[in-house]
């Protein structure tokens, strides 16, 4: 591009013919371009993440951002196709985890690489024991926590102690989850979503806090890792527990709609 109203910012003699995409300096020739790169340690490559104000944003910026997103997509796709991801060792590990879970009467399903749950899953099996990647969600406080390496023989009550026990919980966590810590333990319910159901028929299983994580997972379908929802009986929830909730709704007949927002 030719700039008639600007002079070269390197030699200050000739009219500018080029503008650096990186530092926006004007140059008149290839020699001055090389000099300015050397003097300013500039690589001449446009900073695709640099801030552009709304007043200065043009169609070229829009096109550039679009191409940048395409580049990101190609990079992510290349990473997903990396040989390590599809290596025999990785496939053997996933097969072993699914096989071990099947031996415990758990149907463990893994997602294709690229899915967030697949990338973040840290579940392992060592010395005849699962060490689960586990997510705890507290809907009433809009809080969630991720645990790693949770042994399968640990009870759910012990897993929840650092979060909702008024004595053993971390002070910061206790403050955030105070609605839980202030409630009696008998009011706490632990739910897990039932997989492979239609979106308009979402149901949950209620787990036993006094039993181990392994015992609670038996007979369940798990996609990558368990996600547990901790709710309170006294508070309303959109979650419906399989079994009793459905039976009550049927008995209510036309009045059943009143039960949709109540955790039964």
TrEMBL record:
HIT-type domain location, by residue? Answer: 8-42
What cellular component GO annotations does this protein have? Answer: nucleus; pre-snoRNP complex
GO MF annotations for this entry?
ATPase binding; identical protein binding; TFIID-class transcription factor complex binding; zinc ion binding
Q: Per its UniProt record, what CDD domains does this chain match?
A: zf-HIT_BCD1 (cd23023)
Annotated keywords: Isopeptide bond, Metal-binding, Phosphoprotein, Ribosome biogenesis, Ubl conjugation, Zinc, Zinc-finger
Is Oxidoreductase a UniProt keyword of this protein? no
GO terms classed as biological process: box C/D snoRNP assembly; maturation of LSU-rRNA from tricistronic rRNA transcript (SSU-rRNA, 5.8S rRNA, LSU-rRNA); protein complex oligomerization; snoRNA localization
Family to which the UniProt record says this protein belongs: Belongs to the BCD1 family.
Q: Which PANTHER family match?
A: BOX C_D SNORNA PROTEIN 1, BOX C_D SNORNA PROTEIN 1-RELATED
The record's note on quaternary structure and interaction partners says: Interacts with FBL, SNU13, NOP58, NUFIP1, RUVBL1, RUVBL2 and TAF9. Interacts (via HIT-type zinc finger) with the RUVBL1/RUVBL2 complex in the presence of ADP.
**Protein purpose:** Required for box C/D snoRNAs accumulation involved in snoRNA processing, snoRNA transport to the nucleolus and ribosome biogenesis.
What is the official name of this protein in its record? Answer: Box C/D snoRNA protein 1
């Amino acid at each position: 591009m030719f700039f008639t109203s600007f002079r070269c910012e390197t030699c200050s003699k000739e009219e500018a013919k080029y503008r650096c995409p990186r530092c926006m300096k004007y140059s008149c020739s290839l020699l001055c371009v090389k000099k300015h790169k050397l003097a300013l340690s500039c690589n001449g490559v446009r900073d695709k993440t640099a801030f552009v104000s709304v007043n200065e944003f043009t169609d070229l910026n829009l096109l550039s951002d679009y191409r940048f997103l395409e580049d990101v997509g190609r990079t992510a796709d290349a990473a997903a196709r990396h040989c390590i991801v599809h290596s025999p060792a990785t496939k053997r590990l996933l097969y072993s985890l699914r096989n071990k879970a099947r031996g415990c009467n758990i149907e463990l399903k893994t997602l294709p690489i690229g899915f967030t749950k697949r990338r973040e899953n840290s579940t392992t099996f060592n010395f005849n024991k699962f060490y689960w990647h586990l997510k705890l969600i507290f809907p009433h406080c809009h809080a969630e926590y991720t645990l790693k390496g949770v042994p399968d023989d640990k009870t759910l009550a012990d897993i929840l102690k650092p979060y909702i026990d008024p004595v053993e919980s971390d002070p910061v966590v206790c403050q955030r989850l105070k609605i839980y810590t202030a409630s009696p333990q008998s009011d706490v319910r632990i739910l897990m979503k039932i997989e492979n159901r239609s979106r308009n028929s979402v149901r949950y299983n209620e787990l036993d806090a006094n039993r181990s994580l392994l015992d609670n997972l038996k007979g369940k379908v798990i996609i990558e890792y368990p996600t547990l929802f901790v709710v309170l009986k006294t508070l309303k929830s959109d979650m419906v527990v399989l079994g009793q909730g459905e039976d009550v709704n049927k008995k209510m007949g036309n009045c059943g709609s009143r039960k949709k927002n109540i955790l039964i």
